[in-house]
């Protein structure tokens, strides 16, 4: 629907493809313009124009940005307040349970750390005792260089230490020998040195 250019008091209908001959009186008809005068644009019926800024004065983007940021901050503050109200009752009981559980967890973790430390200490001591026994069996213990030495705990509770040692023989030639030791209740025995 649009105003007829010849008679601003009538509106003519658009059928989607062309203007029809059907007309009707326009609501809020536009009064005729005096000769030589100009008319400011009038809104079409059913058209809801957006407010315009003052002529020559651009819209202030900073004000628009401030309004947007202010809206986001307000929504955030409301969400935080709602979260505090909804979860306020649960926080105290959860906090007490967490403290108790944390204390028990901390004690269990400390006990596990002590067990790992003690196991590492036992394996290291077994290796040192085995090296001492191997060096006592060597012709030239000062020339001993150990490779691939490892200790592990058996299901029976004992520890087995195996490895290789390079050392000089009675003729001064470097030879490689393998060895195995077993440790039970703190007593280490050299099982073989070949």
Concise structural overview:
With 194 residues, this protein is an alpha+beta fold.
Structural description of this entry:
The protein is of the alpha+beta class and 194 residues long. The chain has one helix at residues 61-137; strands at residues 2-3, 10-14, 19-25, 145-153, 159-168, 174-184, 187-193. The longest helix is centred in the middle third of the chain and has 77 residues, at 61-137.
Determine the number of helices (DSSP H or I, runs of at least 4 residues): 1
CA-CA gap between termini: 109 Å
Strand order of the largest sheet: 4-5-6-7
User: How many β-strand stretches?
Assistant: 7
Low-confidence spans = none
Explain the layout of strands and helices.
Layout (H helix, E strand, L loop, with lengths): L1 E2 L6 E5 L4 E7 L35 H77 L7 E9 L5 E10 L5 E11 L2 E7 L1
Antiparallel strand pairs: 1-2, 2-3, 4-5, 5-6, 6-7
What attributes does this structure have?
194 residues; 3-stranded antiparallel beta sheet; alpha+beta; 26% strand; 7 strands; 4-stranded antiparallel beta sheet
């Amino acid at each position: 629907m649009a105003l007829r250019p010849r008679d601003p008091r009538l509106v003519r209908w658009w059928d989607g493809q062309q203007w029809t001959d059907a007309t009707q009186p326009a609501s809020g008809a536009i009064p005729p313009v005096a000769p030589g005068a100009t008319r400011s644009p009038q809104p079409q019926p059913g058209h809801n124009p957006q407010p315009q800024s003052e002529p020559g004065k651009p819209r202030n983007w900073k004000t628009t940005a401030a309004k947007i940021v202010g809206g986001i901050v307000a929504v955030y503050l409301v969400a935080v307040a709602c979260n505090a109200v909804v979860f306020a009752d649960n926080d105290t009981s959860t906090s007490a349970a967490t403290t108790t559980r944390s204390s028990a967890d901390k004690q269990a973790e400390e006990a596990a750390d002590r067990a790992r430390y003690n196991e590492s200490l036992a394996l290291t001591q077994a290796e040192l005792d085995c090296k001492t026994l191997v060096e006592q069996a060597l012709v030239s213990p000062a020339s001993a260089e150990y490779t691939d030495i490892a200790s592990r705990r058996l299901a029976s509770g004992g520890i087995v230490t195996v490895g290789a040692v390079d050392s000089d023989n009675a003729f001064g030639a470097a030879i490689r020998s393998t060895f195995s030791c077993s440790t039970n209740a703190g007593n280490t025995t050299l099982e073989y040195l070949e």
